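User: two proteins, same treatment. go.

Assistant:
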Amino acid sequence: MPEGLRFIHETLMRMADGIGGHEHRYGDDPSQSLIVYPAARPNGPVLLFLHGGGWTNGYKEEMAFLAPPFNAAGVTLVSAGYRLAPRHVFPSNFNDVADAVAMAWRLAEVHGHNRDALFVGGHSAGGHLASLLATRDDWQAPRGLPGNVIRGCLPISGSYDFTPGAGSSVRPRFLGPPGLFNEVAASPIFQLSDRAAPFLIAHGSDDLPHLKVQSEKFALVARAKGVPVEALEVDGVNHATILLTAADPDKPWLAAAVAWMRTRLDGH
């Protein structure tokens, strides 16, 4: 694990210490699992959140720190893992998170949450995968899910375009061998249609420059296709600290996320 990611991992794990949930496996690989953190009254929104880590690192347990503030706001949190590169390349990670959505939907029978109130989100690589879930419409039916199973998407500092010229200095290893097909298929901006789920897109004011540009471009294209999009720039945070402050009630993302999900469920 690179030193920067190690620092974030260790910080997140300290923040997650003592927060327990209910673990379920959706595949044979150790990464193919999720943890449900139910709200006391599980009839509110359900947020399936995906960790970051450059598609090569990260653990679902890192996201436990989000559970207490979301649970207090009546939101059930589901933190899902997925197989990592370079051992597993695209579309393995996408298929995994689609399977995780299917399990979270079916676990409503176990934990009592509202399966019709399911949102997806994530940070960095997780924000990318969540956005791909919300823009593609070819994965729901094979898993026995309704086409509108995703009520909305909340990516934080996500990537939306992997084609040449999109600003990344290196080609992410999860894309596998060079080839434009995977670069387009893995890019949420090229999967957009008027059937995509609504978005609340967030990035930091000091975020990676190419991700800020991609966020703004994705929002423009989505709106042009009739997809409801709200954008939030969090002042004074960068690509890492926007996640570390995501549970902070004094920062705008937490309150905005809860209010936006409730608004989507109210039909406005």
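Protein 2:
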Amino acid sequence: MDTRINLQIISPDGGGNTSPTEMIAKVEQLIRPGPNGETPKYQLLEGNEIWFVIDTDDWGDDIDKLRAYTIERDDMNVAQSNVCFEVWLCFHFSPERQNFNGMHTAQGWKDHLNEVVKPGGFDSQRHPLMIKSAIDAAAENYQEEDDRPLLASTQVFRLGN
């Protein structure tokens, strides 16, 4: 939506482990010279940023390790959703924090999102056009403790900004 922004999504190889510690290892592999001096795949230039977009549901202490890894770096950020990424997606359709039975689980959010977005659920081709209202709604409803989102909150609006 902005030609000045070049967004590259880096997923684990073969749909593998997406834990925060595995994401750190993947980033290190991509931005550091190889063991024999090979040029890294990505060279971080001034103004470049790496964003770790994570859920809260499964990672426990690994989230603290990821935050410790990024805290000293101006070019790395964490955008955490509590419980899961679907919290962010719901803000594309509602200006309010969601409250429903089952909201403490990722599956509850997935089911809820399919109820909120009919027919067919979130459409990754069409619904990102609603990002401005999602940013505003998520920011307005954001609640945290120690820079971590509380239940039904997300930091993904920071990445959107």
